[in-house]
């Protein structure tokens, strides 16, 4: 009996030491989100801009983010960990810390529903409301693999961040369209973008915004226009319906699909646009074909 009691006391003491001094988070919140990791990542960053004295940083990959919120003399840190469950659902685990009051929080939490807990739950609930609203603003449909054909094209080059991709396209669209037609070039399809570099840590992209053309000899020399042969390849395909500002949601969906199905891809998506955003209208009826090249 004495030995069993001693073991029990030792286990309790070890548990208390771990809980009070080693356990990294003060409080943990778990919630399921009906979305895939990339959309959660981008939504969290967008939502964070609406908060005061708050910063968010991506850690080792898109599934791990650190949010720091300063309120009065307290600094609360939220570690957002995202785990994909299936094509439409993810598990969010949010570890919350208040470094200056960690010991106090750990003592209080088992015995009362503290203001720290309530504030943490409210913040996560507010984000989930933002995410659920955003989910209704677009639709991504994953299709089969498809052989993307090659084509000659005329392009304008851009370097920007993901959230300004659509603005760059919108600014270039009238110029590209009018200049090509004005110089006697025959268009041979809908406009598209070819991502040449995607830095997922910095959310930056370099891309060519192009029109397929019928190649002529010679091609007219036009300032800011480059001519190239777009080389098609076998790719994963998705249909994106929604505003072009957030068409990168389809990129993340294709990456998630590729990971789950052990398909190696080159993270340089291609998008073909079937609507002119300058004409307005309900963005849910805009259609974009999105391709993610399969690695050879």
TrEMBL record:
<protein>
    <recommendedName>
        <fullName>Effector-binding domain-containing protein</fullName>
    </recommendedName>
</protein>
<keyword id="KW-0812">Transmembrane</keyword>
<dbReference type="InterPro" id="IPR011256">
    <property type="entry name" value="Reg_factor_effector_dom_sf"/>
</dbReference>
<keyword id="KW-0472">Membrane</keyword>
<keyword id="KW-1133">Transmembrane helix</keyword>
<feature type="transmembrane region" description="Helical">
    <location>
        <begin position="6"/>
        <end position="22"/>
    </location>
</feature>
């Amino acid at each position: 009996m004495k030995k069993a009691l001693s073991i029990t006391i030792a286990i309790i003491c070890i548990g208390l030491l771990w809980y009070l001094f080693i356990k990294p988070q003060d409080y943990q919140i778990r919630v399921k989100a009906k979305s895939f990791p990339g959309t959660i990542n981008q939504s969290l960053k967008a939502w964070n801009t609406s908060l005061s004295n708050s910063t968010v940083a991506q850690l080792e990959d898109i599934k791990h983010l650190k949010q720091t919120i300063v309120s009065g003399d307290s600094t609360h840190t939220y570690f957002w960990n995202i785990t994909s469950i299936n094509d439409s659902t993810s598990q969010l685990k949010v570890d919350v810390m208040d470094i200056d009051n960690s010991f106090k929080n750990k003592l209080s939490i088992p015995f009362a529903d503290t203001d720290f807990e309530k504030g943490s739950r409210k913040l996560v609930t507010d984000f989930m409301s933002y995410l659920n609203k955003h989910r209704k603003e677009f639709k991504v449909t994953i299709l089969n693999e498809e052989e993307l054909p090659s084509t000659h094209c005329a392009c304008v080059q851009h370097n920007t961040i993901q959230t300004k991709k659509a603005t760059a396209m919108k600014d270039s669209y009238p110029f590209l369209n009018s200049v090509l037609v004005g110089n006697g070039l025959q268009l041979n399809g809908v406009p598209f973008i070819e991502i040449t570099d995607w830095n997922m840590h910095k959310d930056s992209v370099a891309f060519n915004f192009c029109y397929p053309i019928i190649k002529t000899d010679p091609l007219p020399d036009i300032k800011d226009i480059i001519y190239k042969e777009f080389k098609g390849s076998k790719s994963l395909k998705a249909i994106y319906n929604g505003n072009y500002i957030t068409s990168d949601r389809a990129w993340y969906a294709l990456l998630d699909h590729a990971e789950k199905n052990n398909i190696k891809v080159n993270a340089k998506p291609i998008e073909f646009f079937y609507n002119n955003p300058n004409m307005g209208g309900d963005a849910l009826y805009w259609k974009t074909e999105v391709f993610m090249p399969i690695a050879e």
